[in-house]
Design a protein that fits this description.
The complex is a heterodimer of chains A (318) and B (257).
Chain A lengths: L1 E4 L2 E2 L2 E2 L1 H17 L3 E6 L5 H5 L5 E5 L9 H15 L3 E5 L2 H14 L3 E9 L4 E7 L4 E7 L4 E5 L15 E4 L13 E5 L13 E5 L10 H9 L3 E4 L1 H5 L20 E5 L5 H7 L4 E6 L12 E4 L2 H14 L1
Parallel strand pairs in A: 1-4, 1-6, 4-5, 5-11, 6-10, 7-10, 13-14, 13-15, 15-16, 16-17
Antiparallel strand pairs in A: 2-3, 7-8, 8-9
Helix pairs in contact in A: 3-4, 5-8
Chain B lengths: L1 E6 L2 E2 L21 E2 L2 H17 L2 E8 L4 H9 L4 E6 L7 H17 L6 E5 L10 H8 L4 E5 L1 E5 L2 E7 L5 E7 L2 E5 L11 H9 L2 E4 L8 E7 L9 E5 L4 H10 L6
Parallel strand pairs in B: 1-4, 1-6, 4-5, 5-12, 6-11, 7-11
Antiparallel strand pairs in B: 2-3, 8-9, 9-10
Helix pairs in contact in B: 2-5, 3-4
The chains are: A alpha/beta (318), B alpha/beta (257).
Chain lengths: 318, 257
Amino acid sequence: MILVFVDHEAGVPDVLSLEALTFARRLAGSTGVPLEAVVFGSDPMPERLGAFGVATVRAIADDRLEDYAPAAWAKGILDVMEADTPLAILASGSDRGNEVMAHVAAQADLALAANCIDVEPGDPYVITRLRWGGSLLEEAQLSGRCKLMTVAPHALVPEETTPTTPQVRNVAPVLSEDHFRVRVTGREAPEGGRISLADARVVVGGGRGVGSAEGFRSLDELASLLGGAVGVSRAVTNQGWRPHAEQVGQTGTRIAPDLYIACGISGASQHIVGCKGAKKILAINTDPEASILAHADYAVIADLHEVVPALVEEIRRL
Amino acid sequence: MEVLVCIKRVPAVGGRMTLTQDEQQIDTRFLGFTVSPHEECAVEEAVRMVQEHGGSSTVLTLGTKDAEEQLRSALAIGVDRAILLETDGAEWDPVATAAAITDAIRSEREAGRGHDVLLFGNEAADTGDYQVGIRVAHALDLPCVVGIKGLQFADGKATARREAASGGWEIFEVGLPAVFTVKEGMNLPRYPSVPGRMRAKKKEVERLEPVHRSGGLERVRLKLPPEQAGDVEILGTGPEAASAVVALLQRLGVVER
């Protein structure tokens, strides 16, 4: 079997896990083995997972695992691995997917290929994975008694298949105190009333060209008129003009808005991997040679300090 | 507080990369070198921890002798010691890297230089493996909290904060010693001062010869992702372009007609 760790929020599998299931189903198809899922919590979601072709759901319902405890979750997956010897185990390349799988890999002493976009089964597997957040690809050989992989976010679209009625099998992992040394002991709610950068439909981006913290006033106005959020490049957070929470890029937030308006951003590769999920990119830049233009759908060659206030005025008049 | 921080020398890429003829590496002839932004923050945090709690900090890397440049940058902002696990330049996969770092930490421990806090970047800028810190923690039987942006100490315990996927924060409380992997945004790293750089130049970099252990993930070749079409529609030049932008926003349904 090919086993997929499916993460969920209150019984709704997350999109990245559905992408991983779709990726894993193709691998299961080409190796001629069934697709199975492992799920933590009281709801094994058989109907939803059946729609993605899952034959068996391994349900790990243990009160101690209700809250996130990465080493303990990994031990749950490892127990399935030891009992049923899957050919491969996959998860999404989310923060959590990568973390849990790294624990599985460390505990099992196996290799893990993070953020894969393609796989050719065989001995060894030949995988293609992201480097530099996706600015570069690596083809690599992955060996080991069980192949561990995470699937790069948004490398493919989740696809349902002929629905199955999965069998649900309960798994009771053997856990010790040590597995719970790291667990969530508290939470702080997000600041209310703000549109999250990752979910915003429109993002107004500002880069070095904005010039100062004060220079963001018109960008803030534009974002609020469009019901969007402000995102910034690393040059801006390094200057201390805006907080890191607003940074778009390889070491910041990956955004996926309908429209990204990139103002005064030259377009370093680390920024591009953070904003390439945008459906459309409009670049506003004084430099017609700026690399952001190679990634943009639309461009205005102008000083953002002139064109953004003019834009704000025009939208106000509508 | 004894703090160890692990870093990795990587090319300072910005634009489209080019590869060497054998497709094994990025062509770095025209590039400088740096470390990941996550690691810059980890180094800064190590210096701040020692300033606040006393003790000493050590920076460690696995790489060629050229990686001394990155070790000295860390010394220049106030890290006390530097250790180079010197390699011949071949790429070590995450299993091999973690095993070499684990060996080095163990021998430090045996020499009476144990660490309370081990810091890593959340993931390396180049390979993005997301696992070296976790593997080291596992080998040393230590707790590991990844992706943190805040860390405080009280009564021999650490409280770490990381951003939750759905917004807000997750809080973790762990005993020491412990491993933490840091994300950019934890602090705003300082720039090295000129006297700091001078001091760093004179410091000794300690060298160890790491033992390579084959790990099961082997690079075949690097590839550039396909170029995008690059059909950009120029809406105009100067502030007069504002009306064309409004028309675009209406067409895309971002503002009402």
